[in-house]
Specification:
It is a single chain. By secondary structure, this protein is an all-alpha fold. It is built from 18 helices and no strands. Helix 6 packs antiparallel against helix 10.
């Protein structure tokens, strides 16, 4: 217990130092309206993730209190990830045609109904709620970011300012997670396990009200047939290696992250190396979950601040290479040192810091490579393999060593992909330098973006 409390205190101190340092070195946007735009987005987005975080700590406990068996609870969780993979991919992708703001509004409505189902101790009603929650999760991880990037480009803000919003969103997400966890525990202690879900509904209502009154609508290709968005997204992934590699990195890293979320508790508990562990003693639990969770979130906040610092010196394609491989090393500790709890906990904290860098870095790269007309659809294609991996992990009762070995494999493959992406990005940068400007006549009268850049350089010469 002392180790976990000391770690939390040290991380908070370290996070405060790094945060104040980044505020000093960070370049301020030139456009005075940018700050208001950032606040407009972050308030709505953080209310959306707050509602999500409010539910997390007590989902399993609520199901158990209804007398639902362990196998049935596993089915409910699998249903959520499966729904996100199948239905969520389709529905969230409609944002490109029918509007990103409308789809974000649908997120609040669907997730609010999912929370309302928690009042009914009926397996099939709860299953329906999990299906809705899975769809809403896909919207959360695609439509909000798609709206932001499109609106940011429409207002002609400096491209570098998008980095600030992504970093602040990741930082705020972690801070909101800590506050929501505390709030959820307080209302659960006072009103019961279903109270956090009612609190989430209030957050959804506030989010929807602000979204309707403060956000304008934007689309991908609103005139294209529904099927065209899926075809365009698939063609973009097939034709552009950068998008394909980016999708591989996202799917494999996030899959490892979700598996980690499911398995860090048994890993740290097993590391105690005790023959008998009483998991029912609430006053003296084997792992202080509250302190550990808070430590993870503070580590993510440190990572989001480090992202700002790293962006001052190099590109996400460059610094994500060591970040991904460091993550793989962290996941190797439960495999090769399964009883070293202190080392394992330190490795998990470093991994969470890498996650804090990963979120804004991936968002920044998606804003560069993913085409606007099918942005939400492409992002949801990326989520299909990660949801499939998590479903398989949940279905199979693998040993911890096999699970974390799989994470090492996933992250190693992600690391190779980010290396290839970095090499391609360097080659693309060199190919458009003035020294390489050779004007060619494109075939069939079509001009790529690179052709246009070449022509501009030629005109200046």
């Amino acid at each position: 217990m002392d180790m976990f409390m000391f770690a939390l205190g040290f991380l908070i101190f370290l996070c405060a130092i790094i945060h104040f340092y980044t505020r000093q070195v960070q370049q301020q946007p030139k456009d005075p309206s940018f700050r208001g735009f950032q606040q407009t987005y972050l308030i709505v987005y953080l209310l959306a993730v707050a509602a999500d975080w409010l539910q997390g700590p007590h989902v399993y406990a609520l199901y158990e209190s209804y007398g639902i068996q362990k196998h049935e609870i596993e089915v409910l969780f699998i249903a959520g990830f499966g729904s996100s993979m199948i239905f969520g991919t389709v529905i969230a992708s409609l944002a490109d045609k029918y509007g990103r703001r409308n789809t974000c509004l649908m997120y609040g409505i669907l997730y609010g109904i999912a929370c309302a189902t928690k009042h009914f101790p009926n397996f099939y009603i709860l299953l329906f709620g999990r299906l809705l929650a899975g769809i809403a999760t896909s919207i959360l991880f695609s439509a909000f970011e798609s709206w932001l990037i499109c609106e940011h480009q429409r207002r002609n803000y400096e491209p570098e300012t998008l980095t600030i919003i992504f970093a602040n969103a990741a930082f705020g997400n972690s801070l909101v997670a800590i506050i929501s966890g505390i709030a959820a525990q307080l209302v659960a202690n006072t009103f019961g396990y279903v109270a956090p879900f009612d609190s989430a509904i209030l957050s959804f209502i506030a989010m929807c009200a602000l979204l309707i009154t403060t956000w304008s609508e934007n689309h991908g290709d609103a005139n294209a047939p529904i099927a065209q968005s899926f075809v365009s997204a698939w063609n973009a992934i097939k034709s552009d290696r950068r998008i394909c590699l980016l999708g591989i990195v996202q799917a494999l890293f996030e899959a490892s992250m979700y598996v980690f979320v499911l398995e860090w508790t048994p890993a740290l508990t097993q590391a105690l190396n005790k023959s008998v562990i009483d998991k029912t003693d609430n006053k003296n639990p084997p792992i202080p979950h509250g302190y550990v969770f808070a430590s993870y979130m503070v580590s993510m906040m440190i990572g989001s601040n480090l992202f700002k610092v790293l962006c001052n010196y190099t590109t996400p394609e460059s610094f994500m290479r060591p970040v991904v491989f460091i993550s793989a090393l962290c996941m190797s500790v439960p495999v090769f040192m399964p009883t070293a709890q202190s080392i394992m906990f330190a490795a998990f904290l470093i991994f969470e810091s890498c996650v804090g860098i990963f979120w804004p870095a991936m968002a920044q790269m998606r804003s560069k490579y993913v085409p606007e007309e099918a942005r939400a659809t492409v992002m949801n294609y990326f989520r299909i393999p990660l949801n499939l991996i998590v479903v398989i992990i949940l279905l199979k009762d693998f040993q911890l060593k096999i699970i974390f070995s799989s994470c090492i494999l996933f992250l190693t493959l992600a690391g190779i992909s980010i290396f290839l992406l970095h090499r391609i990005s360097l080659h693309a940068t060199k190919s458009i330098s003035p020294l390489n400007n050779i004007v060619t006549v494109p075939q069939h009268g079509l001009k790529s973006s690179t052709d246009n850049i070449h022509e501009k350089h030629s005109d200046t010469l």
